[in-house]
Amino acid sequence: MPAVRLFEVGPRDGLQNEPRQIPVAEKIALVDLLSRSGLTHIECASFVSPRWVPQMAGSGEVLRGITRAEGVSYAALTPNLRGFEEAQAARADEVAVFAAASEGFSRANINANIAESFERFAPILAEAKKAGISVRSYVSCVIECPYDGPIDPAQVAGVVEKLLDLGCYEVSLGDTIGAGTPDTVRALLERVLTVAAPSQLAGHFHDTNGRALDNIDVALDLGLRRFDTAVGGLGGCPYAPGASGNVATEAVARHLTRKGHAHGLDLAVIDAAAEMARAMRGDADV
Ligand code: HMG
Ligand code: MG
């Protein structure tokens, strides 16, 4: 494992917002290229309702169609037991449950309050344990929620603690709307680190306001070594042309190199994947 591990979420978090229905073959081509880049984790599927997120409808076909590279874990989001069973049938190497730090986002995203969401997660963890499948987790809106406003770090810490108690191997802290600044991210992490070790946490920064690299620096400073990124900065809002999405894998990798942190990625392959990703959303010349 390199000193800093990047978890590629482009084929899932990036593509899920794209307005154009992207053919399964294009998604498979992107994942296959990423598989040759040195990444150890690629999230490429999401077994959610196709009515809620139409773009992820072909997730089973994607997982069945990719050419699996040795040493790469292919991950899928699973909101409930049905999603887990479909992910398992399609041979996901690991799955992720996704919670929120705010009631407003939890309701909007998964139609459940936070307590109800944990009732859905428990059977996933039980089945995954039997099957020997690792379960990762997300907490959305760790800084600010589009419905409930700024979030108290203590509220995030409570959700993180519950996810770890449930048996998740890692909690990814989602700055879902890119509202974080170095000050608010530091305050958040200092509180969360009272309930979790740095090795149990990942930073998931959306670059909406251009602060993601600064926020990653704060997280590095506090000992975190795991970050979620998306090639080409995929994930921009379809209703805000030019808006940034997830922090770009190629930008984070170069930033880490400048700071002297090994990341194990072949930048020529990552750059080619970023170009492919941009072409998939129709802005190849950007
Ligand atoms: P619900 O309406 O409460 O559940 O949705 P339901 O059980 O009543 O089912 C509703 C419909 O979904 C039914 O179909 C079910 O069969 C179907 P219908 O009768 O309407 O045709 N259904 C499913 N279909 C496929 N796979 C399943 C599944 N389960 C039920 N597993 C539910 C609850 C969770 C299903 C819904 O709210 C949902 O799918 N939400 C997904 C939202 C989502 O994917 N959001 C994006 C991912 S989170 C994210 O991006 C943030 C993150 O990146 C971190 C960050 O940045 O903060 C992770
Ligand atoms: Mg996200």
TrEMBL record:
Keyword Methyltransferase: no
Keyword rRNA-binding set for record: no
Key words of the record: Lyase, Metal-binding
GO biological process, alphabetically ordered: ketone body biosynthetic process; L-leucine catabolic process
UniProt domain Pyruvate carboxyltransferase: residue ranges: 4-271
One Pfam entry name: HMGL-like
Any one GO MF annotation of this record: metal ion binding
Top-level lineage group: Bacteria
InterPro entries on file: Aldolase_TIM, HMGL, PYR_CT
Family to which this protein belongs: Belongs to the HMG-CoA lyase family.
Protein name listed in UniProt: Hydroxymethylglutaryl-CoA lyase
